[in-house]
Amino acid sequence: MEWDMNRLSRYPFLAQAREYVKAQEIPLEEMLSVRNASVQNRALKRVEDAVDGAEIERDFRRTREDNITDLLSYPLSRFLVASTGDRTLAKWFSHHEGERARAFLSSEPLDIVLSMGTELGLPTVQAPAGAQTGPVKAPWEVDPRAFPDRGEMEQKELWLPFTSFLPARRNISGASWNLVNLGVVNGKLRLNRDQYTRLLQEKVRERVEEGLDMKVRPPKLEHLDAMISRLKAKVDGRKKDYSPTEMGKLTITRLPPCMRQVLGMSQSGENLPHHARFALVTFLHTVGMSSEEIFKVFMNAPDFKGDIVRYQIEHITGASSATSYMVPNCDTMKTGGICYNPDGLCEKEWMTNPMIYYRVKGRKLGAKREDTAS
Ligand code: SF4
Question: Do residue 230 and residue 353 come from a single domain?
Answer without folding.
Answer: no
